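Residues and backbone
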Amino acid sequence: MREVYRILDANFNRAREAVRVAEDFARFALSDADLAGGFKNLRSMLQECYQRFPAPALLAARDTGGDVGTAITSPTEMRRADAASVAVAACKRLTEALRTLEEYAKLALAEEAPKLEAMRYQAYQLEQRLGRRLSAGERLANLRLYVLLTSRLCRRDVLETAGLAIEGGADAIQMREKDMPDRQRLELARRLRELTARAGVLFIVNDRADIAAAAGADGVHLGQDDLPPSAIRPLLPPRALIGLSTHTLEQAKAAAGAGADYIGVGPMFPTATKDAGPLAGPACLRAVLQEVSLPAVAIGGITADNIDQLVAAGAKAVAVSSAVIAAEDPAAAARAIREKLPAGEQA
């Protein structure tokens, strides 16, 4: 039985250490309280489980000096590309250790095996959430100008307008059609998907996850009164982005836990959009950028004349509609706004 206790002791240590590494990344690198809390809860569950095993027997079986594995290394073991890769590797160690604990617990304390299995599934879910945050962050890292496209507000043809907005520097196009029949909406979405794919920019559909999925869009954007991101996620491809409109610091803080990949914050200035929500203003944006780690896009009444206020508040990305799509020259209008925003992280 000593060899079983030795395996259990080593993997309890391995699992607790791995979950702490992942927790620290979620806490200090992502500032994601909900994800960090999930890892912390799992760490507590592991500790409680450990205490139900005979601690003296586990410690007595420990033989670090006689562990042949300490001399076995792989070429990549001591190399990590960045902090995110450290956290990802920790998640892999965590799930592996939990599987070993689950199997060997059947020999030492069988009633704990189902609990360890449940913890393993919880670890898989946490790993998935971490991976989604990292993937979304990478895809949104260079997002600066996000143009909301509504055909009835366009001075030119809607597809021509989208192309000119991209020419002027738009990194993302959102199709925002509230009154269009579904078949027409889907056809437009598919044509916009083709256009944005050729240009290498993101394509987001407002509200309608079904249209987004059918058109192969990069994601969907939701409002506070729409279905929550957690309910929408199963309807979309694995890497699809979900944006969530927020109007207060509290809503922005809750967005990560709700499953959003990025947030819209606004309205920054008075706007004619009916569902824009109460005026948030640059002060709200500054607070959100200081306290929320999710990528944030300022929205609402933004023009080339007032965008300097948002840049001063820390804005990296803004969403605009009429200022670009209703302009005589959408490319020039987009360029005038884009040039006032900070450069992306990559050339």
About this structure: The chain has a mean pLDDT of 93. The chain is about 55% helix and 10% strand.
